[in-house]
Amino acid sequence: MSQATAASVAGRAAAKRRRNYARRYVWFVVPAAVVIIAVILFPWIFTIYVSAFDWRLGGERRWVGFANYEQLFTDARFGWAVLRTIFYTSLAVVLPMLLGLAAALSFNRKFPLRGLARTIFILPMMATPVAVALVWTMMFHPQLGVLNWLLVQFGLPPSLWVYSADTVIPTLVLVEVWHWTPLVMLLILGGLASLPIDPYEAAKIDGASPWQAFRYITLPLLAPFIVVALIIRTIDALKAFDTIYVITQGGPGQASETINIFLYLQAFAFYNVGYASAVVMVFFILIMALAALLLWTRERVRMT
């Protein structure tokens, strides 16, 4: 038997073994596949199906095709909800990223009781969003809240906080920053702990200042960790619902009605499940597009 024939026979035998192996163990995959179909795939297919109907709970379904999607692009209330979501997400991402980076750089230095300070700093992220929202709601009260009492003590005028359309979004962002800045700090602090020492020693020998070391060594090496934190914070801020709903329910008026609040009201207050399903699909496409952009940015950062 020639060498080529022997290799061909060995290849066919290996392929046959792989097929037998696949047939033997394919049943172990079935439970996971069933769960994925039941929990993920079926709800999305059903949502797409429902979005093609004018359907209010308790009423009849009427096929409307893409009419719900067309209504979205002419619905001024939905447009304002999108703008508020962008404004809220921008503030709720940029501020925790900046503060988290500053906190990580501070906690990376050695100082007395550093472990205790780190522990105290990360305590907010351990609380549930609803509990956090309830506590901050009491603090924001115009007459009984502790925040206005503190402002008066410092000679400043009291604020309406979440009770004013002009300040409600920044005030909600304040809660988000307090709650999730520790997560950004932990992610970036993990990156700082993994950085090599050699570049810093070389920079010190060359006479680089602390700012130059941060600008040309720390920041480029931390870029992958910063992008990961950015992706996590962006997705979290976009899907923020519980804190906003508990504190304001989208008010005053519609001043804090983001896409998630708009979606909730359409589905569970107005029972317009067909229109709400169309909102879900559009929101899903927006999130996927943004996630793809952020992941592309992450790959570009890794390549540089």
TrEMBL record:
The keyword Disulfide bond does not apply. Signal peptide: none annotated. The chain crosses the membrane at residues 25-46, 86-107, 119-139, 177-195, 216-235, 273-296. It is a multi-pass membrane protein. CDD domains: TM_PBP2 (cd06261). It is found in: Cell membrane. Belongs to the binding-protein-dependent transport system permease family. This is Sugar ABC transporter permease. It comes from Belnapia mucosa.
